[in-house]
Design brief:
alpha/beta; Urease, subunit C, domain 1; five-stranded parallel β-sheet; 2 domains; 14 helices; 19 strands; ten-stranded mixed β-sheet
């Protein structure tokens, strides 16, 4: 048993801050209810005198979710590689990212995944949705990433970025890796275990997918019951290409073959049209908004953001600090004079838990309270914040404190599936070794990029 004493529960949707109270958590090995919240009440230390103390005071919230990232880009931070100037987004892919993903080997992949997972946990992120690419390291790549998640104790959803850009054989290999990994996850459940990592069906973008490959992806979605995870209309080029070559909008393309479902994740969607938003909303799919990445790549702003039913927040590989991402999302919307306020983005930040729930709900009783809440029986994916606000923090102004005060530095203790991963700001895994190997593998990656 794990115990938080005198913590103020901070729910994000609907927003609420409680009076100080105790929260008890079942550890993973404590029977059928392992990894869930056991009890909420006063003076629980008297009832559970042998419980491990995870914190005293502070604000306890559900864990944060990064709904779209690229762990393979972790080792690009500060890279010392000769990159040709790019005049547009398509050239940026050619000059930088497609050189980087071709340079990935198993050792580089493992190091980048471990470092990225560790960064996420230290920022109060308990679930990370990754979108992997590595044309020279496709087979079993998702299993390498899965091990990194399990070694650090992070929850998440993985996929491989299927694309035609290096030929049809590679496209088929990408689909095969996605399907193989879904079977790996299914086998974990069949053995009676609760997986920490789930699987989606990954694809790059409309402009690098033929109809044949898209149909193969749709078949994989239908066969496995997972959702597609794909970039669509991140740049205007993707939208124009779909209409020019296929006479369909990007969302219309994937929906026409039956690949868009309620577990589907569309990254960016900057240049989608109102009719495409209607299709996504009808399919109950998710739009992963990545404000910092969109700004960095100068691809434009998604003015239709308030019209999407299921907006979630991601980083597109720019770290995993979701409070930082939240701030950028808020300020970029304000700069565009959009109608959303911090409270609207708080809902989007919290909605990442709905995405996680759609992939992991089968591991819990039908009546469980769901992800993203602090209630008895809910999954124990939790963050204790040692934030000491200079003004009152109540339900009505949580979004304001997130936008103008709190930062990931306040993430004191992090629990995932009932297991302590960060305690008093100290990782419960060998973070020093992870960071040292990441620095070594980053140099290897940069050298391999120069050779390409």
């Amino acid at each position: 048993m794990i115990l938080f004493r005198n913590a103020r529960i901070m729910e994000l949707d609907p927003p609420l801050v409680s009076e100080p109270i105790d929260i008890a958590v079942y550890e993973p090995n404590e029977g059928a209810h392992g990894g869930t919240i056991a009890e909420i009440g006063a003076s629980l230390q008297t009832k559970y005198p042998k419980a491990k103390l995870a914190g005293d005071g502070g604000f306890l919230s559900p864990g944060l979710v990064c709904a779209h990232t690229h762990l393979y880009s972790v080792l690009s931070r500060g890279m010392l590689v000769d990159i040709a100037p790019s005049k547009d987004f398509a050239q940026l892919l050619e000059h930088l990212w497609w050189r980087l993903d071709r340079a990935i080997d198993p050792e580089i992949l493992q190091a980048s995944a471990l470092a990225g997972c560790s960064d996420a946990l230290k920022a109060g992120v308990t679930s990370l949705v990754d979108h992997h690419a590595g044309p020279e390291c496709i087979a079993d790549s998702l299993s390498i990433i899965r091990k990194a998640y399990e070694d650090t104790g992070l929850r998440g959803i993985l996929c491989y970025e299927t694309t035609d850009r290096n030929g049809m054989a590679e496209a088929r290999a990408g689909i095969a890796e996605n399907v193989r990994f879904t079977k790996e996850v299914d086998s974990i459940r069949a053995s009676g275990q609760k997986p920490l990592v789930e699987a989606a069906i990954g694809a790059h973008a409309s402009f690098t997918l033929s109809n044949e490959t898209l149909e193969g992806l749709a078949e994989a979605v239908q066969e496995t019951g997972r959702g597609i995870h794909i970039h669509l209309a991140e740049d205007k080029f993707d939208a124009v290409d779909a209409r020019y070559r296929f006479s369909k909008d990007p969302v219309e393309r994937i929906d026409a073959v039956g690949a868009l479902t309620s577990r589907g994740i569309i990254g960016h969607g900057v240049w989608l049209t109102p009719s495409e938003v209607e299709i996504m909303n009808a399919r109950d799919a998710f739009l992963a908004h990545n404000a910092r990445s969109n700004m960095n790549n100068a691809v434009g702003y998604n003015a239709l953001l308030p019209t999407f039913k299921n907006v979630v927040l991601g980083t597109d590989g720019m770290g995993a600090d979701m409070l930082e991402e939240f701030k950028f999302a808020v300020f970029r919307q304000r700069e565009s004079q959009g109608p959303w306020w911090p409270a609207d983005f708080l809902k989007a930040l919290h909605r990442g838990n709905l995405l996680i729930e759609r992939y992991f709900s089968k591991d819990f009783e039908p009546t469980f309270p769901g992800f993203g809440t602090i209630k008895q029986g809910a999954p124990a994916d939790l963050v204790l914040w040692d934030y000491d606000p200079p003004t009152p923090l109540v339900g009505a102004n949580i979004a304001g404190h997130f936008a103008f005060g709190m930062s990931s530095r306040s993430a004191r203790t992090v629990i995932v599936a009932g297991k302590i991963r960060i305690l008093d700001h100290r990782p419960m895994y060998d973070d020093i070794a992870i960071e040292a190997d990441a620095r070594y593998q980053a140099l290897r990656l940069w050298k391999r990029m120069e050779e390409r």
